């Protein structure tokens, strides 16, 4: 039903399936080996970033809330799953070492060993309270959604209730992610300070499975999660709920006079979106292998907004296109594989100049193609912007601009 | 007859300027009322106070049979209690179709989770089609509201107000920018609506008010200057003074 009404979702899912199967058939583990394991990991991570962009589009493109702190939720999801990965994996190693001892270790000794291994680096001998559930996968999986969800709920409740809007809200979200990042940097807060959590690519219980196979499993999981998240977002933005949040984006005062509790809607969308982001992060960091507080730097969230803007906000496929194209280009340019450009008098090294190129691209998109890369898709589908003599579609700052809309 | 809305002793100042000064006003459950007054008389502030957009410094605003105070309620709660407002400029959701605009306005639970569970039914589609027919937009249901002409947007907004099924309708300068034929249509509609609910029309245009043929409240400097039939108030020397200048 949902798919029949939204053919673009069907096309997207089909493309995603084709992509996943193609990568699998070219992987080292299950196919010809054309695609190296490191590339499989990059692609899997890219799918997670695409899902984060979909979540961002939900709050910004549909509800008009320009959150510049969404990567905090993404990273928190990563931290929550990372705690289990690190604890359980260290547990295996400690158990193996202690197995040679004449007397079998007690659970207490085991825990002491794990704590020493994980927290020795920050000079602590006690397991922090926040790690109480780290030994249990189901508990940490619940926390993956619960912790970022609760943070988003509290933050949103405070901000939306006071009717903080526009630039002020964006600044507040930046402050949130910065504060959280600084807090995590502290060694004695129980998240290993700037060491972060590492070795996350080693999945407990799967020590004998080579990374080439695990990377494909994670690619599948990321594709499935992206498909699920995309369908959830399609369902949310279709129908009356979608109508109401788009109306809030364009003219929230009017929505109030229709009797809708605007703050409740913003809070709902913000929290759901944070949880989608967190789920994406929980799959991203095991593929990245390491997470540290720098992942919560304000710039990361700004990038997320840039991806959505370059892809074209207010359309879910736009967010995915933006995230995939820009993050893959970014890793190509910064990976040193892009050939330098020799201008005779100056050598343009892309590792340094990529950010400038991205910045120029962002400005160009904002000025000349507000629909971003998805205008290519829209041109194929025959969608045109309306003719409105340059007026936006509503009085609010987040309202769609003429060129972003569809006639 | 008990009053549906009762405003008593309301005062509101902006930076020392008294926009509303000890204003009292009441309207019955099925009544048409015109509120007139020169610029700056406090007409818009009055509507802002009733709809919860502005909080008064002093006074009471009581609503309905249970004399509920509106002062502690949010805009959305007041709208759900049954007060609809038509703005001077048409405000519809331009990026969405006429049908979506009307569907959003249909009387139904407004909470986020109730709306997530809401599904269009035969009855809701029929209601939307009927409303569109009533405001002359039956053939535009699938078109985006942004494509409509100024007059059509006005009508769409009226359709949305009807969909809300308010018990009190506040209408701000409905005649502004309307042709003579449209004005006649509007007068007929407002009078018909007032048979089953309370309608307050804020208007500048004396000619339009005469057509409405209803009780008139004259506001001046944030307070009621005179109240009664149009002939009665226009015979009042103070009203003549205010309108013709001293």
TrEMBL record, chain A:
Supply the CDD domains for this chain: TM_PBP1_LivM_like
Keyword Transmembrane helix on this protein? yes
Q: Which Pfam families match?
A: BPD_transp_2 (PF02653)
InterPro entries for the chain: ABC_transp_permease (IPR001851), ABC_transptr_urea_perm_UrtC (IPR017778), LivM-like (IPR043428)
Q: How does it sit in the membrane?
A: Multi-pass membrane protein
Q: Where are the transmembrane segments?
A: 43-63, 70-87, 137-160, 167-185, 214-236, 264-284, 290-309, 316-333, 353-370
**Could you state a single Gene Ontology molecular function term?**
branched-chain amino acid transmembrane transporter activity
Give the record's GO CC terms: plasma membrane
**Protein name from the UniProt record:** Urea ABC transporter permease subunit UrtC
* Organism the protein comes from: Paracoccus salipaludis
Q: Which gene encodes it?
A: urtC
From TrEMBL, chain B:
| Classification via InterPro entries | ABC_AA/LPS_Transport, ABC_transporter-like_ATP-bd, ABC_transptr_urea_ATP-bd_UrtD, BCA_ABC_TP_C, P-loop_NTPase
- Which CDD domains does this UniProt record tie to the protein? ABC_Mj1267_LivG_branched (cd03219)
Top-level taxonomic group: Bacteria
Residues in coiled coil: none
Q: Which Gene3D superfamilies match?
A: P-loop containing nucleotide triphosphate hydrolases
Q: Name one GO molecular function term.
A: ATP hydrolysis activity
What's the protein name?
Urea ABC transporter ATP-binding protein UrtD
Q: What is the lineage of its organism?
A: Bacteria, Pseudomonadati, Pseudomonadota, Alphaproteobacteria, Rhodobacterales
């Amino acid at each position: 039903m949902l798919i029949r009404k939204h053919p673009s979702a069907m096309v997207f899912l089909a493309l995603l399936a084709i992509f996943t199967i193609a990568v699998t058939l070219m992987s080292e583990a299950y196919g010809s080996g054309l695609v190296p394991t490191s590339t499989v990991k990059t692609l899997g991570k890219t799918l997670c970033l695409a899902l984060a962009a979909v979540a961002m589009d939900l709050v910004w493109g549909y509800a008009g809330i320009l959150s510049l702190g969404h990567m905090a939720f993404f990273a928190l999801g990563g931290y929550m799953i990372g705690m289990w990965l690190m604890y359980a994996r260290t547990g295996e190693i400690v158990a193996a070492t202690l197995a040679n001892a004449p007397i079998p270790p007690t659970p207490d000794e085991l825990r002491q060993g794990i704590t020493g291994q994980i927290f020795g680096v920050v000079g602590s001998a006690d397991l922090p309270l926040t790690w109480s559930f780290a030994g249990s996968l189901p508990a940490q999986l619940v926390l993956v959604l619960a912790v970022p969800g609760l943070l988003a709920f509290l933050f949103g409740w405070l901000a939306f209730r006071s009717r903080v809007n526009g630039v002020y809200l964006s600044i507040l979200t930046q402050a949130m992610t910065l504060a959280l990042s600084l807090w995590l940097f502290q060694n004695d807060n129980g998240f290993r300070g700037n060491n972060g959590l590492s070795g996350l690519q080693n999945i407990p219980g799967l020590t004998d499975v080579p990374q080439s196979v695990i990377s494909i499993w994670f690619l599948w999981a990321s594709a499935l999660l992206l498909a699920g998240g995309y369908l959830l977002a399609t369902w949310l933005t279709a129908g009356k709920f979608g109508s109401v949040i788009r109306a809030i984006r364009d003219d929230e005062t009017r929505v109030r006079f229709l009797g809708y509790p605007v703050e409740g809607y913003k809070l709902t969308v913000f929290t759901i979106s944070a949880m989608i982001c967190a789920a994406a992060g929980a799959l991203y960091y095991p593929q990245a292998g390491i997470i540290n507080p720098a992942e919560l730097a304000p710039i990361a969230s700004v990038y997320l907004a840039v991806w959505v803007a370059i892809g074209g906000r207010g359309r879910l496929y736009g967010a995915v296109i933006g995230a995939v194209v820009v993050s893959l280009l970014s890793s190509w340019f910064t990976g040193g594989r892009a050939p330098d450009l020799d201008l005779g008098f100056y050598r343009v090294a892309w590792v340094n100049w990529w950010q400038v190129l991205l910045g120029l691209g962002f400005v160009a998109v904002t000025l000349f193609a507000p629909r971003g890369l998805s205008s290519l898709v829209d041109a194929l589908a025959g969608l045109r912007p309306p003719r409105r003599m340059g007026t936006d579609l509503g009085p609010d700052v987040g309202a769609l601009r003429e060129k972003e809309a569809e006639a | 007859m008990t009053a549906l809305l009762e405003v008593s002793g309301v005062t509101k100042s902006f930076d020392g300027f008294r926009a509303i000064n000890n204003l009292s006003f009441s309207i019955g459950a099925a009544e048409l009322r015109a509120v007139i007054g020169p610029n700056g008389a406090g007409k818009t502030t009055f509507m802002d106070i009733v709809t919860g957009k502005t909080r008064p410094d002093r006074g009471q605003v009581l609503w309905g049979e249970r004399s509920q105070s509106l002062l502690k309620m949010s805009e959305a709660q007041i709208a759900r209690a049954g007060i609809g407002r038509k703005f001077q400029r048409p405000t519809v959701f331009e990026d969405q179709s006429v049908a979506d605009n009307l569907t959003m306005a249909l009387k139904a639970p407004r909470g986020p989770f109730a709306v997530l569970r809401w599904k269009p039914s035969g009855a809701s589609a029929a209601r939307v089609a009927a409303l569109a027919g009533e405001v002359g937009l039956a053939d535009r249901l699938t078109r985006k509201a942004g494509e409509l002409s100024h007059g059509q947007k006005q009508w769409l907004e009226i359709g949305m107000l009807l969909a809300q099924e308010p018990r009190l309708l506040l209408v701000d300068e409905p005649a502004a920018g309307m042709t003579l034929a449209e004005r006649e249509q509007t007068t007929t509609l407002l009078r018909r609506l007032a048979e089953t609910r309370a309608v307050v029309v804020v208007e500048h245009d004396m000619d339009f008010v005469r057509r409405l043929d209803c009780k008139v409240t004259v506001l001046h400097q944030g307070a009621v200057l005179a109240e009664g039939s149009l002939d009665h108030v226009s015979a009042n020397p103070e009203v003549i003074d205010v309108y013709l200048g001293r």
